[in-house]
Structures are given as C-alpha cells and as structure tokens.
Amino acid sequence: MSRPPVENINVFSQELLLTPEEIRKRLPLTSAAQDTVVAGRSAVQSILDRKDPRLLIVVGPCSIHDLASAHDYARRLKHLSDEISDTLFVVMRVYFEKPRTTIGWKGFINDPEMDDSFRIEEGLQKARRLLLDLGEMGLPVGTEALDPIVPQYLSDLITWSAIGARTTESQTHREMASGLSSPVGFKNGTDGSLKIAINALLSVSHPHSFLGIDKSGRCAVIRTRGNHYAHIVLRGGSTPNYDAQSIRLCEKELAANRLQENIMVDCSHANANRDHTLQPVVLRDCVQQILNGNQSIIGFMMESNIEAGNQPIPADRNQLKYGVSVTDPCIDWPTTEAALREARGKLKGGRKRTA
Q1: Nearest C-alpha neighbor of 33 from the set 209, 154, 213
Q2: What is the DSSP-derived secondary structure letter of residue 323?
Q3: From CA 307, how far away is CA 20, in angstroms rounded?
Q4: DSSP code of 2?
Q5: Domain for residue 208, yes or no?
Q6: The domain spanning residue 333 has which CATH number?
Q7: 181-211 pLDDT, tens digit each
Q8: In total, how many domains does the chain have?
C-alpha cells in the first residue's frame, strides 16, 4: 500500500536559478560603478555621522517597470544632482520588489514582463544591468531589501537600502539588514508606531547568525558584525508624523534608547495623506524646521517619475503610458525639479550648526 506524501504537497514545480556568483560573472561590477557605490556610501555615512552638512535625498519612481523610462529618469536626475550637490546628496530610488498586502504585481525582479510569467532569473539579470548602467553614469541608487536572497545578487551596486513598514518588525529582515554593506533606513510601522522601528535599530546594530545562501547559492550560516549606519524613516501612520512635534517625539524615543538622532522623512505615503501632490508641501515644512534649528532631520524620500500619477497594468502592455508609475502615484519631473531646487536654495550649502 502506497503512503501519502508528506512534503511539497502544495508545490507543483521547482526551477533552479543561476547562482549569485554566475550572474555576477555575466554582469561584473565595473570600476566606474564600484567608484560610484564606494563614494555614495561614504557620503551617506558622513551625513549620518554629521561630518557632511548636506541632506540626503532618496528620490525616484515608486517602482521600476520599464527600463527605457528608468534610464530617461536617471539621466534627468543625474543632471539635477550635479546642479544641487553642494546642498543635497541625491540617491535615485530604484525599487525592484514590491510588498503586497494581499495580491498584485510583486515587482520587476519577480515578474519583469508584468504578465504573471514570473521570469525571476530574467528579472534579476535585467535589474543588475540597470544598476550597473546607473553606477557607470555616476548616480548612486537606493532600493528596498525585501527578499533576503536578492542582496546576494545585487548588493554590491546599492548605496542605500530601506526596510519597509511591513517588514520592519520581521526578525528575518532585521538579521539580513545587520549584514548589509550599505546604510539602511527602517520605516515606522504602518500604524505609525515608532517602537517597531526603534526595536529594529537596536537589533540591527548587533551581530547576528542566521540561515541564508552564499554567492555560490549554497545554504549557509551567515554571521554578521551588525550595521552601524541604520536610521529611522518616518512615513506616517493613521496621521502624518513629519510635523515638528512628531519629530521631537521621535528624537526623545531615539535618545531614550541611546540611538543617534538621525531621522529621514518620507514625504509620500501617509505623510502626504496618500496624495502625491502634497509631497512638496511635506518637504517644504521639513526644510523650514531645519532652518529653524532642527538638527535631527538628515534627509528625505520622495516618489517621483517622469509623469504624474499612476496607472493600472493593462492586459495589452503596449498601452502602458510612458513614464507613469504602475504602483503608487508619483509627482512629475517638473514638480520634482522645482521642489529640490527650492530646498537647495533655502538650505544654501546644507545644515547650519548651532553654537
């Protein structure tokens, strides 16, 4: 009599991926891209250490879905970055993975064709190619670290990483972040709770040992030193939390836990009441706080694209509008330029030190 199966009951197939080492050999890190990453990480670390008076700006599309428009946006941002670099250090937001509350498109790496074909190996290679192109352009990039395996494929090209509001509380993501080579921002919880992010910062700064994969794709015990360039990202919750009172409350929580008072403000999401057009308003308010003497705000995030708003993914991909987000709505390029130039004009060289 045959026995019933007891494993992989709900799995109908498994496909082997190229290992991180194999994909890196196909798309090796170039000297120019490496220089961009090294210089970018050093600049972000100096901002967090208060050795650099500039503000960090992580700006770009909510998610990458079209490589042509991503290159187009990057060229525009590089030109603007060079113009405002005396005051604002710009990192392009290049998000390839999207956490879903229920179901939906999971991002470029998981489904590059946006048709549920899930050509993940293709997505990984195209994502790495884009990161190489931007690095060779001299444009630092930031991304959300969502799947704990993906950093082995891409982390050598990342200047700054984020842990999203849905995963800040996850032990897996805290452990992973403790080993990331880039500075990392932890968002507060979706309900606005600071405690989740505070606990994450306390955790990530310490060494961890956990299961993972090495560059050859083998299961391994990963042992980390801890990431000492982690910081909080305020993204709002049931109400916005970028106002001066909310910032002071966050400062107190950080100080009470003996954490450095480094605060990044996400100008989108709940801080903009989910209205993308309000992002420049949030930025303007925080810039004024800095002009009034705030010393804890070290940077901002903004969701920006070539065109404003967002669009559903159509059955016919040829009907996609160029330069329009397929996830969260974004401000358009002229609005982005105006907002960052205004911030640069007001801050004039960066944060001023108090006596």
Answers
A1: 154
A2: T
A3: 34
A4: P
A5: yes
A6: 3.20.20.70
A7: 999 999 999 999 999 999 999 999 999 999 9
A8: 1
